[in-house]
Amino acid sequence: MDREERRRRLRGFSINRLIPNILTLAALCSGMTALRFALQDEMRLAVVAIIVAGIFDALDGRVARRLGVTSRFGAELDSLSDFFCFGVAPALVLYLAVLKDGGPLGWVVTLMFPICAALRLARFNTALLADTPPPAWTGAFFTGVPAPAGAMLALVPLIVSFEIEAPWPRHPLLVGAVLVAVGALMVSRLPTFSFKKGRVPRHLVLPALLGAALAMGLIATKPWVAISLAGVVYVALIPFAFRSHRRMAAEAAIQAGATPGVVPLRSGEPGATP
After folding, report:
1. Which residue ranges form the domains of the chain, and what is each CATH number?
2. Which end of the chain is more exposed for a tag (fewer CB within 10 A), N or C?
3. Average pLDDT of the segment spanning 50-70
4. Average pLDDT over residues 99-122
5. Is 268 exposed, middle or buried (CB count within 10 Å of its CB: 0-12, 13-18, 19+)?
């Protein structure tokens, strides 16, 4: 070990390098706490804990990029946290709340969801190691539904039951069908919008702020209704994402054909985030 390496080890890590990993661990703790609440039959608190995990998960990557402290260790830790928080935790919460009444089939459906989450994350991790990076424009899309969004969509029937005094939102057949459908969307090749790199046109800034204010007001007064509506809107945007992806792919293919040395676009390339 040379002298410079020894000095670096003695100095330790900067606090800035630890902040993203701390946020990831906070997300993991929130996911584990969701299971504790579910075991205590506190399903509302269990859903809130998964939402908090999603907030921490959205922050850790952004903070790492802003501070310039991204690392392979952080990426692996984030992937493991995502698998538990948005694959295992929501599936077990739904099993304890509803699917345990579905017998063996309910457990089979419960197992399917974290498996889909694991396959999705594994596909994303292998895409990061590809020799040829995907075109820059694909960063505007995810390949399939991302794990945090998938967890929220899977929980929508349970969330609806918090507002509606009716047995149908917690029917095992409905919850199981939604879980299977969301799991299929997670591992699918359907493009979905990545709002991380979205831009708002200048003339739409004020309407967007007004819409955000209305959304926050709805969340403050009717949080479960707001989350359910957000899930419906997200699913409704998938056809628009598919059409936009095809249009941009066609434009890139035309440009590649007109520009020597440019490799034509392969449809379905993964985006820049899981």
Report:
1. 10-258 (1.20.120.1760)
2. N
3. 87
4. 92
5. middle
